[in-house]
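Render this sequence as a predicted structure.
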Amino acid sequence: MGIKLGLENTIEILSRLGNPQLSFPSIHVAGTNGKGSLCAQLSAASTANGAKTGLFTSPHLVMVEERIRIDGEPIHPLHFDEALAKVMAASEQNPPISPTYFETTFLASMVIFSDFGVERAIIETGMGGRMDATRLVEADMAILTTISMDHSEYLGGTIEEIAREKAAIHRPGFPLISIMPERPEVQRIIEGKAGNDLRWVTLRSDLSKWNAYSQIVSMVSDYFGWKNDPLDCVWPGRSPGFGSSWFEGVDLKFSAAHNPESMENDIRETPNIEVILMAMIEKDEIQETMKALSRAIVERETPPKVIITQVKSGRKPSVSPEVLIETILSECPSIKLAIPIADPSLALGESLKLALQGSGTLLVTGSIYLMGEIISKVATDRGMDTRKVMTIH
């Protein structure tokens, strides 16, 4: 059913289900970049402190059950099916309601968390915040990561409009922890929304984003009285080192960069890139994202080789590799090698071959769905237990 901002359908179906979202307290996380990584670490921290913890995130990489985890493990397909059946029955009551894909997975997560006696949930927004289905959870803390231009076709054409949508996850009387934004106008919007409940955090610039988020986890731990021990947590495709040893001689790095800010930062922060393998799904920020990619490449003494492919999954069509190549070359003519390879398996094979001829570093970026297809291929080829691969702590 695509994307539909609004809460009416979800409110009604939750009511028919007995409002399972009220059975447990939640930490609600929104932002443009990094919210999934932070949610994974918060889930690990909550579980380490003895609470049965539910985690709802999106999108999934390999299997839909990843969106709903308990104590770090994706829910079993049978339990997912049982929850879907309950959601379907509720939606078919008179008058019938047709929830979107995202709303359906969110509703299933609420049913599962309630049925399994979850004591604390970590909830990642799908998009925005104010009109996102996840806004209906009973949250005793909200957190904002970075705010930049993303999903402008739904959230608004200015950074101020997007900030208002995301800051709306704040609940009066409960803390809102927010990464300090660079733009004063965004700061003012968040301050105006949260008032005395606001707690700013400035991430350390000498740490990777993954490690810097430990500052926020520490603030959350202090507030709830959790012990603040080092976390044993892996976030597939996003945390450092994931997949780095899969291919002999190749240092494989994943980046979930999908907008200009994250694309430019991730390429700048990754040393010795020999090859960039990427795909992008259609969205309004494509042109700006490609410009950001080009800016980051131009800064390098030796520009990396670029291979563009396309994904078979994804909620929107993949942009043609030829179109992306043309855009990159127009912005960055210093690139010596840019190849369109539509089939992602063939594109991965060529990327590995080129990486081995140089520094060995291969960066996969641009679409989270590309990461999922590569992880799925590796797991299938090597007979790995996919649920185990996607268990995060």
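Summary. The chain has two domains: 8-224, 251-389. The chain has a mean pLDDT of 91.
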